[in-house]
Amino acid sequence: MGDNIQTGDTIPVARDIAHYLIRVMRRHDFLAFGGGAEYNATVSDDGKTITIGEKTSHIDPSNGVTLLFSPIKKTDDLLNMATQMGVAAFQPVITARTVANHINWARMEKIITESAEQSNRNSVPKILPVKKFDEIDLSHVVFADERAAYGAELPTVAHGAKYIFVGPEGGFADSEFAAFDAAGAIGISLGKTILRAELAAAIAISRVLK
């Protein structure tokens, strides 16, 4: 519903949401969330406003992880899975081998909102403005290092990391690996095989969560 909702608020409701609640679900009461909290709420009989009631005891299962990723053909699948895993924010990054440069970000916002609702979260991850690789501070980043598939011995976990970076379908370029190494970024192994980018993101997230 928004980050700043609180008990007692009466706010306008989008027509499609009102239609879904009243006509499809055939109810006026529902659970609303925003800013990491969940509230009992009701939609008015005319479908124009929502009134926010008491806060529930449900605790937001999301975490403080930011996923840095190169837009891919299946960006929707990547965002969907990562949202279900509790990621707090997404940072799209244009890398040397990024090929999906025309993502419908409005559609992606809708996908992660629906995924947050379905996974019982109280918050929707933020999609940050797209950046270029050389604009990223790599010093605190954990990245999915596909060099492990070619024999490099790397750690498999990095518990407590807050910034995870996964590359595009073609992987990171040599110059990007050099930048990671120079910045002191931590490369982690996702196994001995090359994974699809969306699967690599899900596994990388699982390897930094405590």
Secondary-structure class: alpha/beta
Task: State the name of the first-level CATH class of the largest domain.
Answer: Alpha Beta
Number of extended strands:
11
Spans of at least 5 consecutive residues with low confidence: none
CATH superfamily of the largest domain: SPOUT methyltransferase, trefoil knot domain
How many distinct domains? 2
Question: Which H/E pattern describes the elements?
Answer: EHEEEEHEHEEEEHEH
DSSP strand content: 15-25%
Features:
four-stranded antiparallel β-sheet; 26% helix; alpha/beta; 2 domains; 5 helices; single chain; 210 residues; 11 strands; Alpha/beta knot; seven-stranded parallel β-sheet
What features would you describe in this structure?
This protein is of the alpha/beta class and 210 residues long. Helix content is 26%, strand content 22%. It has five helices and eleven strands; from the N terminus they run E-H-E-E-E-E-H-E-H-E-E-E-E-H-E-H. Strands 5, 6, 7, 8, 9, 10 and 11 form a seven-stranded parallel beta sheet that branches. Strands 1-4-3-2 form a four-stranded antiparallel beta sheet. Helix 2 (75-84) packs parallel to helix 5 (197-206). The longest helix is centred in the middle third of the chain and has 14 residues, at 105-118. The protein is elongated, with a radius of gyration of 20 Å. The protein starts with 9 loop residues before the first strand and ends with a helix.
